[in-house]
Amino acid sequence: MAWDFSTEPEFQEQLDWIDEFCRDEIEPFNIVFPVALRTNDPKVKALARGLQQQIKDRGLWALFLDEELGGPGFGQLKLALVNEILGRYPAAPGFFGTAAPDTGNMELLAAYGTDEQKERWLVPLMNQEIWSAYSMTEPQGGSDPSLFRTNAVQDGDEWVINGEKWFTSAGRYADLLFVMTTSGMFVVPTNTPGVEFLPDSPRAHSHIRYNEVRVPLDHLLGPPDGARVLAQRRLGGGRIHHAMRSIAQCKLAFDMMCERALSRESHGKIIADHQMVQQAIADSYADINMLRLLVLWTAWTIDNSSTQAARTQIAACKYTCAKTLREVSYRAIHIYGSLGVTDLTPLQDMWAGSPTMAVMDGVDEVHKVTVARNVLKEYRPHDGLWPTEYRPAKRAAARKKFEPLLASDPDLARYADGMARYMAGRG
Predict the structure, then answer these.
(1) How far is CA 55 from the centre of its chain?
(2) Cα dihedral 352, 353, 358, 360 in deg (nearest 10)
(3) DSSP of 10-42, one letter per residue?
(4) Containing domain of residue 29, as a range?
(5) Same domain for 370 and 234?
(6) 57, 109, 198, 246: which could join 113 in a potential S-S bond, CB 3.0 to 4.6 Å?
(7) Averaged pLDDT score across all residues of the chain
(8) What percent of the chain has pLDDT over 90?
(9) Which residue has the higher pLDDT, 20 or 73?
(10) CB-based burial of residue 368 (10 Å sphere; 0-12 exposed, 13-18 middle, 19+ buried)?
């Protein structure tokens, strides 16, 4: 029987190094030199590359990829433990080569790309020489593929793409767009004529019109009409990775909550001694650890089967992480009081981010439907009028099972009859 909650010493040493490196090196560097990985300043870029080289020297680069693709091949369980640290620091995933949306796009190229496509796009993405975005949702249909209108039509040796995409995260800053159409998944360079960034969109989430966009035939990724399969492959991994990193955010809010509770006084005592504050801490402790165990179990399941086999668990992780982040950050804001509702701590960003977490990669309600449907497949309706656990029926069945024994032994029959009368008298 294997049922172990421990971490092997060698990997724990890596986790301790990651924790210290993120806290002492990446966080202060990002405060002084934000967006350093994307800057064109050679001195800042050199400093960032120096930090990344330390990560590579520890064998911790591109953690989500297998060894043959340049990653360490950790698997999802170890990746979950790492992401519990990286998710605490906004810049850390990028420094470790594990930042969305590039990770999901790289996984698509690794799984479905031709050798030429991998050489052209996967290698420079891994080296952070270029950046990418995932262009899926549409203004009229959200993330429901059955309502998508963006299409691609072959015209000689080119594909012609037309349509609109809404909320393409990091699209404005990308070199490549992975565009989901009704005809397949396409890799579209951002500077392709006809790619139009519309002004009516949030800065970080682009509204893009594809107006007679022409790309060569070899820009189709995977089979024609295979976009839905590729999307599910990409989004399944993305959802569990978001859940992993959300644990880090929840734990950060919890640490802030506990520190503040021990540092402030109200009505003659530190606020940690007030029962309502204790309830917030106790509820948050339980919520975070329940989420963490769900995510780790799901990661273990993926490692030992597949993403598809863990689909129900991944869906449960997705909506549970949004709920937990919302609840824990809200409690922390209340314990912080007026400071909590300002932008002087990370709490407002966490709380504001929880609705985003509940919408991106498919709204929570859709995932709850998925969980319910898949769970119900394991059950069957009961026979007859009464449910399986209807007590009078179970008593009758049990009496029938032991009837031969009771018929042969009057003492046992008297005992059974007496207990039956006693139980009936109790209601």
Answers:
(1) 23
(2) 130
(3) HHHHHHHHHHHHIIIIIHHHHHHSTTGGG---H
(4) 9-113
(5) yes
(6) 109
(7) 94
(8) 83
(9) 20
(10) middle
List the one residue out of 220, 174, 199 whose CA is nearest residue 38. 174
Are the beta carbons of 195 and 177 closer than 8 angstroms? yes
Phi first, then psi, for residue 190 (nearest 5°) are -60, -30
Q: What is the pLDDT of residues 68-114, one digit of tens each?
A: 777 888 899 999 999 999 999 999 999 999 998 999 999 899 989 99
Quick check: 55 pLDDT over 60? Answer: yes
Quick check: is 408 in a domain? yes
By CB neighbour count within 10 A (0-12 exposed, 13-18 middle, 19+ buried), where does 26 fall? buried
Residue 382 lies in a domain: no
Here the CATH number for the domain that contains residue 187 is 2.40.110.10
- What pLDDT is stored for residue 427 in this prediction? 59
Q: How many domains does the chain have?
A: 4
Could you give the CA distance from residue 23 to residue 344 in angstroms, rounded to a whole number? 19
In a domain, residue 169? The reply is: yes
d(CA 318, CA 247): 12
**DSSP state, residue 162:** E
Any idea what the CATH number is for the domain that residue 294 is in?
A: 1.20.140.10
CA distance 309 to 267: 53
188 shares a domain with 74: no
Single-letter code of the amino acid located at 192: T
Amino acid occupying residue 77: L
Query: Do 268 and 212 share a structural domain?
Result: no
Same domain? For 165 and 210 the reply is yes
Phi and psi at residue 71, in whole multiples of 5°? -100, 180
CA distances to 3, 84, 245 from 6, in Å: 9, 15, 20
* CB distance 236 to 226 below 8 Å: no
Residue 159 neighbours by CB under 8 Å, 6+ apart:
152, 153, 183, 186, 214, 215, 216, 217, 219, 220
The β-bridge relationship of strands 269-270 and 184-189 is: unpaired
Q: What is the pLDDT of residues 156-167, one digit of tens each?
A: 999 999 999 999
Cis peptide before 404 (omega within 30 of 0): no
